[in-house]
Design goal:
Strand content: 15-25%
Mean pLDDT: 90
Distance between the termini: 31 Å
Helix content: 25-40%
Strand order of the largest sheet: 2-3-4-5-6-7-8-9
Structural class: alpha/beta
Oligomer: single chain
Low-confidence stretches: 502-510
Number of helices: 16
Length: 511
């Protein structure tokens, strides 16, 4: 069998998506989930960019021992030194060095000639090779680089010690046939290409990231760089779940090509990343969208009942898509509760289980039936949330058509209760203004949406928001049967992210 290496950059390129702010503990949680998923390489961050990113890479390197842990660096010694230091505890460390090679980048961004770019690329790879054996090199904007120069750079960095050469379609400019031909040309024109693995890193500006990645695999690439749910800069990156299932579902096209991915973990990690970044997965999203395995048209329903393959090319259970089932109620005990969580792949410590059970009983008093989605929301909202600076203690709302809405809010911080009240043009606005008074952080609401987690009038509502504080944009989510409570919790989660995130002035990395 021919193995494809899955390189996940959710924690680096994915987190660069505006609003996708993750703290150190959240990055570690996602990294552990990626390790369970079976990814081969986890790109944990860009250590030189900030103290927070350095600590996050260091923590991931300590926590994960299965996958290789990768740190990003420009072709600059201080970047490579920071990557080396952050990766000291990694069992399988990799340094990923990048340098732009296209004419437009060399002329306008770097202001350097080809000869200098070539020299810097070789020197940086040689320098990084002193510290780790596993060096990856990316000629940024490779898909718009002059082919002959690209071949020279690739050959030179392989000679200098690069074990992987990544071919980024930095701005999502390529189309599948063109990009596949570029990979084939590299194989045919770089004399020492057999000494390195060809990797691909595709962006989705034209909606072709997955198609380009798969075309590259057909032409000899053996590493795909991707993210959970396809998150990333601008329109995002190639989606891990789509490239993995694309290869697995079409063995007639991708003959004997396999990955280490345990596909049954896909939906679980999709929801985790969505929850922690605050980015809602679209219902029509391939593989992990809420409608991916639902059939409403009568002809489709009839076909699936007679033979699943008529309208389903993937079994829902193969990607961990659970059935929405009635499972528990207010009289259910700890044992049944624990068993149901475990069947959903949620293994909690004794302390976490007690906390989750407490919230479960509270929810069961509010709604008659508890669904699987409700259980997942309980664990994600109340148990797995880390580093809470502010917590909602109480909330009183007075609102109506003919009265001005008012909110009284009580927040807890370090066992102390802080109270404030405010009015607004609606109960949510009043609530947010009261929270602003307590925290001293005034967020500008950029986006607000709500959707039901399950069916029924007593369903929990999940609120997703995006706020801006000065030059920072973060997203957050929360759920409750009371949508005002969910709105308040989501806003508090966003405020906590703002409070915890280390700020830095380094420019973001685009490739």
């Amino acid at each position: 069998m021919d193995k494809i290496i899955i390189f996940d950059t959710t924690l680096r390129d994915g987190e660069q998506a505006p609003g996708a702010s993750l703290n150190k503990d959240e990055k570690v949680e996602i990294a552990r989930a990626l390790d369970r998923l079976g990814v081969d390489v986890i790109e944990a961050g860009f250590p030189v960019s900030s103290a927070g990113d350095f600590e996050a890479v260091k923590s991931v390197a300590q926590a994960v021992k299965g996958a290789s842990i990768c740190a990003l660096a420009r072709a600059i010694k201080k970047d490579i030194d920071a990557a080396r230091e952050a990766l000291k505890k990694a069992k399988h460390p990799r340094i990923h060095i990048f340098l732009a090679t296209s004419k437009i980048h060399m002329q306008y961004k770097l202001k350097k000639a080809e000869s200098e770019i070539l020299r810097l690329a070789v020197e940086s790879v040689k320098y990084g090779s002193k510290f780790v054996e596993d060096i990856e090199f990316s000629p940024e904007d490779a898909s718009r680089t002059e082919p002959e120069f690209l071949f020279r750079v690739i050959e030179a960095v392989i000679e200098a010690g690069a074990k992987t050469v990544n071919i980024p379609d930095t701005v999502g400019y390529s189309e599948p046939e063109e990009y596949g031909n570029l990979i084939a040309a590299i194989k045919n024109n770089v004399s020492n290409i057999d000494k390195a693995i060809i990797s691909v890193h595709c962006h989705n500006d034209l909606g072709l990231a997955v198609a380009n990645s798969l075309s590259a695999v057909k032409n000899g690439a053996r590493q795909i760089e991707c993210t959970i749910n396809g998150i990333g800069e601008r329109a995002g990156n190639a989606s891990l779940e789509e490239v993995v299932m694309g290869i697995r579902t079409r063995p007639d096209i991708f003959k004997d090509i396999v990955s280490n991915i345990d596909t049954r973990e896909i939906c679980k990690i999709s929801r985790l990343v969505s929850k922690l970044t605050g980015f809602v997965v679209a219902p029509n999203k391939a593989i992990v969208g809420g409608n991916a395995f639902r059939h409403e048209a009568g002809i489709h329903q009839d076909g699936v009942l007679k033979k699943r393959l008529t309208y389903e090319i993937i079994k829902p259970e193969d990607v961990g898509f659970y059935e929405t089932g009635l499972v528990l109620g207010k009289h259910s005990g700890r044992h049944a509760f624990k068993q149901r969580l475990e069947s959903l792949g949620l293994k909690l410590t004794g302390k976490q289980l007690e906390k989750a059970f407490k919230y479960f009983k509270g929810l069961a008093d509010k709604k008659k039936h508890i669904f699987d989605e409700d259980l997942l929301a309980i664990v994600e909202d109340e148990v797995m949330v880390t580093a809470q600076i502010w917590q909602l203690d109480d909330l009183v709302i007075s609102s109506g058509i003919k009265i001005k809405p008012k909110a009284q809010v009580c927040l807890k911080r370090r066992d102390k209760i802080f109270k404030a009240e405010s009015s607004g043009d609606g109960p949510v606005d009043a609530c947010y203004k009261a929270i602003d008074k307590i925290t001293g952080i005034k967020g500008k609401l950029l986006d607000y949406s709500i959707q039901s987690i399950t069916a029924g009038k007593d369903a929990q509502g999940e609120v997703s928001i995006k706020i801006k504080v000065k030059d920072r944009v973060v997203s957050a989510r929360a759920a409750s049967t009371d949508i005002i409570e969910a709105s308040a919790k989501a806003y508090i989660n966003a405020i906590n992210k703002i409070s915890l995130k280390t700020r830095h002035n380094e420019p973001k990395v685009y490739f």
